[in-house]
Design brief:
Shape: elongated
Number of strands: 3
Distance between the termini: 11 Å
Organism: Halopiger xanaduensis (strain DSM 18323 / JCM 14033 / SH-6)
Number of domains: 1
Structural class: alpha+beta
Strand order of the largest sheet: 1-2-3
Strand content: 25-35%
Protein name: Nucleic acid-binding protein
């Protein structure tokens, strides 16, 4: 892929889906199943390749995913 091309790092497709997941940390939060860590997931609609992002706005995440 050329430097000026953008798209999924795996297949080059340019359409994405976004979702949010929550996970437990370690220690007491794991023991009591407290989901205190949130991530945005950006996934390629073609091949399903996904990346997790924490603490960024949704626009920045898609830009990072697509290159």
């Amino acid at each position: 892929m050329k430097d000026d091309e953008r798209g999924c790092p795996k297949c080059g497709h340019t359409e994405t889906e976004m979702d949010e997941i929550a996970t437990t940390g370690s220690g007491l939060s794991k023991m009591f199943d407290i989901q205190n860590r949130k991530f945005m997931v950006v996934s390629c609609t073609n091949c399903g390749y996904s990346e997790l992002y924490r603490g960024q706005s949704s626009g920045n995440m898609v830009d990072l995913f697509l290159g």
